[in-house]
Structure formats: C-alpha cells, structure tokens
From TrEMBL:
InterPro entries: FERM_domain, FERM_N, KIND_dom, NonRcpt_TyrProt_Phosphatase, Ubiquitin-like_domsf. This is FERM domain-containing protein. Residues 6-180 form the KIND domain. It comes from the Eukaryota. It comes from Oncorhynchus mykiss (Rainbow trout). Keywords: Repeat. Residues 232-325 form the FERM domain. The keyword Repeat applies.
C-alpha cells in the first residue's frame, strides 16, 4: 500500500462516531513517541498546534504532522499562552503547547458526534491524563515523558496491540469504506486500482449541466467586469462530466484549484483524487505545490482569454492486493 495519509478528522468523519478508549490509548502513545522523536532530532520547524485536521495517519501505522496555522478552526486546539501572545520559543514551552493541543484533539475525538445528553465514555485513568494535558497553565501540564510512561503502563497492563497496528486499522477502515476494486492488465500483469464506490449524488452523470464558475479569493476583477492581466481560467472536468471554470491567478498553484473544486463538489474522499492535465494524449498529475503556469501551454500564459483544461481523476493505486482482499 502506498504511504497515503488521512487526517484524524477524516477517520472520524468516515466512521461517524468517536474513537474508543483503546484506540485513544494507542493514538496517544504513538503520537507521544513521534513527538519525542521529533524533539530528539531537533526539528525546530514543527508547528506548535496539533488539530484533528493536522494529525496525519497512514495505513502502515506511522504518524505525521501537517503545519496548522492559527485560525478560527484551530483556536479550540491552541494552547492559551499562544492565543494570548505569550508563547515562548524554547523547547520546553513548545512541548507544553503540543501537549495541550494533543489533549484537546483527543478529547474532541472521544466526543465526536455524541448526543448532547450522552457523556463521554472514558475510564478515570484516561480522563485524568487528558485533563492534565489540557491545563490552562502550562506549568501544570503533564510532560511528554510522563505521558509515555502512563501509556506504556496501560498497554502492558491491558495487553493492548501496538499503536502502529491500531493506527493502520483506523486508516484501512477509511479506505475499505470508501473504495471498491476494479481489475485490468498493465504490461502483462494484473493491476488493481482504487475507485470510490460511494461517490454520492455529486458524481451522477452531469455532463449536460451548465458550467459552474468558481473564483479564487486572490483573483481580482475590475469594476468594468474585465479580468486583470494576471487572471486566468482553468476548466476542471469532474468525474460526472460536468465542467467547473475556476478563475485564478497566474501564480496560483495546483493546491489552490484542487481545494476549491473538492470543496465545491463536497468530496470527502479527496485524498484519492488529483488534478491531471494531458500531454500527447497521456495524463499527468499536477503536484499540489506546482504553479499551474509551469505545466500550462504558453498560450495560457500570454493570452488572457485562453483556458487550461484539467481533469479531476482518481490518483492512487494499490500495490498489494492483500490490502483489499
């Protein structure tokens, strides 16, 4: 299986309910180990906020952290000292902020979609540990080493499976719910691809529907209704056949257009897809960080009225058939 990551938020959205206690223990242990490892290796560029949309899980059981900017959505998971502008850049201070974020993120995961009158189902031990991570005062928060000790003791006492196995299963549950199997031949050997089986009404054939026009926030249109010289148009053909016209800037990147289109399509399983362009009748996927101008034809860069055609396509393939059998 390729090392595709999904976010914790996507895991819970797919499940439609909260994490179980044993899953929280495993995720807490795995995350604490990763944070200690990052700290030991001296990576100073890591963000001080962990949130459900920035904690990444892979099918191989590994974890990663996506940079999480301070936004309205992330405020819930941000340490008070950071919100109040009192955050220090020292290693112990950053650790305390990460501990707070992780605690709030895990509390969110055990309360996900619970009815208002239904209490969170946690043991006193785990509840106490999470509360100690979410103390408003940084000096009262538990540190990472203490979290590790508590998690390791719990795993040993309860004979819990290794964190990587639990994390991998959480991700596989997302994949298995969202995909079906299709078979074919490539180069004389069997290949298996992932295809989304529950695409929903947004992927019913809509080729005859009128074109939708989306505009990136950075695009500027003059009062006369004409685009400025740097504005361009990208036409995205959805799997339904419907086309979406995205007005963007010449400096826009693949991610800008991709995020706008998947948000419009309300596409939850967006991690299977990518934007692809054609060259000599062959499809090539556009990297999220690549500027569109790097792959667009010269005419698109020079002539304002020229559109660049791309396609929203399924991107990922299964390397090991046993993953889906």
């Amino acid at each position: 299986m390729s090392s595709t990551f999904v976010t914790l938020a996507e895991v819970l959205e797919c499940r439609g309910g909260p994490l179980l206690e044993d899953e929280v223990w495993s995720l807490l242990l795995g995350t604490a180990e990763s944070l200690v490892d990052v700290s030991y290796k001296g990576h100073n560029s890591m963000c001080s906020i962990i949130s459900p949309t920035s904690l990444l899980l892979s099918a191989t059981g590994t974890l990663a952290f996506k940079n999480c900017t301070l936004s309205d959505e992330a405020c819930t998971f941000t340490a008070p000292e950071m919100l109040q502008g009192r955050a220090s850049s020292t290693k112990p201070a950053i650790e305390k902020m990460l501990v707070y974020s992780l605690g709030m993120t895990l509390y969110w995961s055990v309360d996900y979609h619970l009815p208002q009158n239904q209490p969170v189902q946690l043991s006193d031990h785990l509840n106490s540990l999470l509360l100690s991570m979410c103390e408003d005062l940084a000096h009262r928060r538990v540190n990472l080493n203490s979290i590790l000790e508590s998690c390791e003791s719990q795993h040993k006492a309860s004979l819990l499976p290794p964190p990587n196995r639990v994390i991998g299963q959480l991700v596989e549950d997302v994949f298995h719910k969202a995909v079906s199997v299709c078979w074919g031949w490539r180069g004389g050997s069997v290949w298996v691809c992932l295809s989304v089986c529950a695409l929903g009404p947004e992927f019913i054939r809509m080729a005859d529907e009128p074109q939708v026009v989306l505009e990136l926030p950075g695009s500027i249109v003059s009062k006369k209704g004409r685009s400025c010289s740097s504005q361009r148009e990208v036409i995205v053909v959805l799997p339904s056949g419907q086309s979406v016209l995205v007005r963007c800037d010449m400096k826009s990147r693949g991610r800008d257009v991709f995020d706008m289109v998947v948000a419009h399509a309300n596409l939850v399983e967006h991690f299977y897809f990518g934007l692809a362009y054609t060259d000599d009748d062959e499809y090539f996927f556009l990297d999220h960080e690549t500027k569109i101008s790097k792959v667009a034809p010269d005419s698109w860069k020079k002539v304002v009225s020229t559109s660049f055609l791309v396609f929203l396509r399924i991107k990922f393939f299964v390397d090991d058939i046993s993953f889906i059998l």
